[in-house]
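If you are new to this repository, start here. Below is one unmodified record pulled from the training split, so you can see the exact layout before writing a loader.
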Amino acid sequence: YGIESGNDAIRREALKGSFTKEKIKEVIKMTQDNDICVIGNYMFGFWEDNRDTMQETLDLALKLNCEYVNFYCLTAFPDTPFYNELIERGIDVPTCWSQYAQVSSNFKPLPTKYLTGKEVLALQYLHPEKGAINTGDYCTTQDIANLSPPYVLPAEIFVKNIGEGWSLLAPTRL
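And here is the target side for that same chain:
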């Protein structure tokens, strides 16, 4: 499911209609109650995203307890309304295709109104038990400051504190 954000206003901005958190919870529960595994897809970096709205997204992801999850940085592709809005705002957008892929060593994360692109990328590395963004358990402020192209956190930072019951690679229920 393309849940995208834990914040209703951000989700409306993303043209997902009026799906509220309550409706999303209802649909996920119905799906799981029918023994169907759920993949929850979430995005960080909508223009109005900030630390609080990104925390809401994490909180919803934990509450929904989908069997699989994907967390992505929002990407603005050429000639889309979002891309054009960023150009009008003077935002430095990707200039080659390798800068669009989050797994690329050349990835260029987009900023929000409140966060740099580096912060958006780094804030995806969230602590699943504490539910807090940037607690220092996954990445520290210094880790963020040290990021430079390619914007990929070293594996030892990403995996050093994955707690029991949380896996980005295998299905699990918290």
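Two things worth knowing about this chain: Strands lie at 2-4, 39-44, 68-73. The radius of gyration is 16 Å.
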